[in-house]
Amino acid sequence: MASSRKPASRTDPSDRLTDKVAQALQAGAAFVVSGGAASDPAEIVVAVALSGGRDSVALLHAAQAAVSAWNLQARVVALHVHHGLQAQADDWDRFCTELCERWQLGYFVRRVSVQAGTGEGIEAAARRARYEALGEMCRVSGACMLLFAHHLDDQVETVLLRLFRGAGVAGMAGMPAMRRLDEEGAIVLLRPWLEVPRADIDSYCAAHGLAWIEDPSNDSTRYARNALRAQLPLLEQAFPALRANVAQAAVHFAQAASMLDDLAGAALSRLAAPGRDADTLAELDLPGLRALPASHADAVLRVWLRDLGARAPSTARLAAMRGQLLDHGGGEPAIDHDGLVLRRFQGRVLACRPEPDTLPAPQALAWHGEARIVVPAWRGELRFTRDDTFGVPEAVLRQPLRLAQRTGGERIVLRPGGPARALKQAYQEAGVPRWRRCWLPLLWAGDVLVMAAGLGMHRRWGEAPHAPRWRVEWVQAGPGARSD
Fold it and tell me: Which residue in 463, 419, 454, 411 sits closest to 435, CA to CA?
């Protein structure tokens, strides 16, 4: 980002807020480049999360002023999320549209449907939907930085609310001033006004004659944050330094959380490994995890889930995970968490993709000598390689083929001259977990079993090098797929 020089003459008190935005943008640009996302471009796109309320309108104005006053090679755009949760949502969209037209700024809007997931309320669901929509709009607009107007009063309320809800050390750290929004590090989230009290933003709006819209839900004490906000004046009468002290406590908690993350990360590096198949994202060494103290194991699980892109589990949820995955020895538990399924299998804790709700219907196929047949319904493909010694006779493969799930009672020969064994036993001996088997199809030529995915070909034909033969393999789709 060009020009790091502060403007020479800055006498307006509201300039302090503009300067904080400019400094945050310069720090954010360095943060993006350090993440390897991109080199420093000639002009960057800076996005402001615009709700239409006082704080976000002030921030959008200050972002423009910072780019101009500090001679930054940047272009400002506004991003608006239309939740549809209140009757005035369309009015807010119109207000933001007209504001950006007057200020000649790019404007992006996304409508989202808010649906609470397992273990979260409507406020948490709205927050999750908002961040997903903002990330999408950043990518569409080309923005590498996303600014939020959270201020000191917001930070104090956040820390106190988390305290009342029993948050851990990481939660008590409050909102960070800077963090990566996406796993790739291409977008950095900035909160340049976390140290600025609400009163200073009021003064900024008055100095620049800004107009905004009021959210009527801000006056409803049925929401926890509003109920707390109504009590803060009384608390400040008894504790005049409350805001400054709570903010300082958040800094201490952030430092402690960073140290705990470093310790957990060191243990995680010893215990973690990539998944061994296309449906397993990652795995943890179960004996090593069990050897840790419970609190240390919890920290490792939290960091592992965070690195996989899942939201942090609550203390109770984490205890339940540990109880089923680590403490209990029997069975094959399956724990759903934020788009992942956590399982235990053969001395490992696995983070798996969720299985589809229904299995596909049998697929009729015809082979005409091609090297591969992709079967999307079964999430994989058949591959054919010439093998005149131990392959399947070509005449068999020229018959109508069928890919279908097991029905029970099937038997297979896995080595030439070997015994026929029940598929269930063969899968057990091969270490294929039970939940995977229903998604490993069988290939039939008429009534003849040709191949069992996860095991290999049926070797019923023996050695006969005098006829055209083909080796048939099943390859799972997705990263980490391997041939059977």
Answer: 454
* Cβ count within 10 A of residue 349: 24
Strand partners, 111: 82
Domains by residue range for the chain, with CATH = 15-241 (3.40.50.620), 275-352 (3.30.465.60), 363-476 (no CATH)
Of 303, 294, 318, the C-alpha closest to 267 is 303
Q: Once rounded to an integer, what is the mean pLDDT over residues 462-474?
A: 80
Tens digits of residue pLDDT in 130-164: 899 999 999 999 999 999 999 999 999 999 999 99
Taking residue 423's Cβ as centre, other Cβ atoms within 10 Å add up to 20
Looking at the predicted structure, is the pLDDT value of residue 35 above 80?
no
Q: Annotated binding residue at 154?
A: no
Is 53 annotated among the ligand-binding residues? yes
In order of 129, 219, 390, the CA distances from 461 in angstroms are 56, 78, 7
Could you tell me the maximum CA-CA distance found in the chain, to the nearest angstrom? 96
Q: CA-based Rg of the chain, rounded to a whole angstrom?
A: 29
pTM value > 0.70? yes
What are the residues whose beta carbons fall under 8 Å from the beta carbon of 222, sequence distance 6 or more? none
Is 52 annotated to bind ligand? yes
Q: What is the Cα–Cα distance from 146 to 188, expressed in whole angstroms?
A: 6
Residue 483 banded pLDDT, cuts 50, 70, 90:
very low
In 3D space, the residue among 311, 288, 272 whose CA is nearest the CA of residue 170 turns out to be: 311
**Do residues 364 and 401 make contact, with C-beta atoms less than 8 angstroms apart?**
yes
Q: Is 437 one of the annotated binding-site residues?
A: no
Distance CA 451, CA 473 (A): 8
Find out whether 369 is annotated in a ligand binding site: no
* 351-376 as b/e: b if 16+ CB within 10 A: bbeeeeeeebeebebebeeeeebebe
Eight-state DSSP code of residue 216: G
Cα distances from 10 to residues 64, 66, 158, 196, 375, in angstroms, run 16, 12, 32, 18, 66
Type of residue found at 122: I
Annotated binding residue 307: no
